[in-house]
Predict the structure.
Amino acid sequence: MLRSSSRERGPLWRDPAFRALLVQGILLLALGAFIAMVVSNTMANLEARGITTGFGFLQDRAGFSIPQTLIEYSGDSTYARTFVVGLLNTLLVSAMGIVAATLIGFAVGIARLSPNWLLARLATAYVEIFRNIPLLVQILFWYFAVLQALPSPRDSHSLLEVVFLNVRGVVLPDPQPLAGFAATPWALLVAVIATWWMVRFARRRQAKTGRPLPVFKLGTLLLIGLPLATFLVTGMPLEWSIPELKGFNFQGGVTVLPELMALWLALSIYTASFIAEIVRSGIQSVPQGQVEAAKALSLPGGIILRKVVIPQAMRVIVPQLTSQHLNLIKNSSLATAIGYPDLVAVFSGTALNVTGQAIEIVVMTMAVYLLINLVVSALMNLYNARTLLKER
């Protein structure tokens, strides 16, 4: 008797693939029904209370001032512009915090592995102190205990009579560009492109000939020299607004709010304590044989760290570093505790209280933080992919 080459198919409900697909479909339907129920109940409750919904309020007049604005803003501006102002302030403190925390974290992490006993112990004390104190407490410390204890504007601490530090912040000279200044940013862009091309050329040249180029020195000279030369050739098209004390406050210049300084210091110092541990663990993950081989080639300690250890450690450091950058951006929302006008304080605080559009404002705020973090995560993942070992 001939046997069939394939088994007879059993009942469909006995097929594991079908059962898995069925269960997932049921779960999706249940989730969709739950979301629809929540939305329906929310809309019904809002309608019962006479609360309007929609994003039309964004075109209404805000009617309140904001102490720090990176773009033109007044009380007659719309809530949409209020949203942009808060977003820019959040991006400003986040970018400043990421740069400062990364630099401090790398320095402290390397210092923890220093053969110098005092330097290593000081770095360890830094990490153990600042990572174990809540961030909100550190923000309040810098704001109330340090910056609010500064003297009044009349008794300001001064530096060369052009920079002043007082309870209202740091007052700096304000550069005012004149005609012809536009050539300087273009020169800086050309210098950046030329430096990028030089780095790629140096890598190809070293791969072929084994002879390195002093890329750091040449790049620094190019990035500083070309814009500076352009600035001088165009007749220094820049004038400075020097702050002057008139009455009870300074006129002219630009003032850095104490709220921004306190938030920036706290975010940078707190996050740097975690980054330092990430850097230390990443460096220690590099096999000791790599260091010994570099020493056998008589390479100096600085070159061993920069050319041998750090490039291999970055494969361990970058994924964890990404998480700390994302945490710093989210932690910037604690600015509302000291009144710094970030997105949460200005839009989810003042604008929400005035308009009552809680759902729309909260959803927009959540979406913005999600988008910012996704962009930062994508950029860090792209860099991480470039640092991974490439197998042949």
Remarks:
- The chain has a mean pLDDT of 86.
- The CA atoms of residues 375 and 381 lie 10 Å apart.
- The radius of gyration is 28 Å.
- DSSP finds eleven helices and eight strands in the chain.
